[in-house]
Amino acid sequence: MDVTYFFRVGVMEMIKIKGLLSLLIIIMLVSACGQSNSNTNGDSLDNSPNQGNESESVDNDTNGNNDQGSSNEASEKESSDKNEEGEDQMILESDLEYSVQLHEDGSSLIVQMKLVNVGEQTKRLEFSSGHQFDVVIRDDHGEIIYDFAEDRVFTQAFITEELAPGEELIFEDTWTDMDPSVSPLQISTKLNIYQLDGQSLPGEPFQLEKTWSSEE
Hints:
This is Intracellular proteinase inhibitor BsuPI domain-containing protein. The chain is of the alpha+beta class and 216 residues long.
């Protein structure tokens, strides 16, 4: 009877000890898992500054490219404005460079049209008549105050001109009734080339308009 009692007490004590050991093992495992997660989070945080720097570098590169693009666009626009308003305005078609110069001489306005062969081959120009060019001048209201071809009679015969490389063909017209008080003036010019090297030209490519003020 007494032996049985002590045996049962001993078994219960052993069960309690095993339970405590199991609980201790569980606590140790949970603690180890917590440390592992903490290390992983720490590594992630250490990498964050580098990612931020990479993002900042990409943003800086993008902004730099945008600034350069804006600068190029501004430069192109400035060049275009110069061509529209300056004396260097010209047209290049089939290796022929067409430009117009204006000169004031007292009460006269001289319109000079120049065609230069900038290519490496001789160019053959054909005009269907003596009406080789046009000059029309309008006032600031858009009304025609001078037309070169008005009341003129032109030779009705083909005219051929040949331009070797580097050579130029110059046409000149003088308007003798210019009134300095009428300003600015819009001068429209055109070359009436019928064929170039035996081929018809698409449209009328050699046309230029310029604005003239007596203050110039």
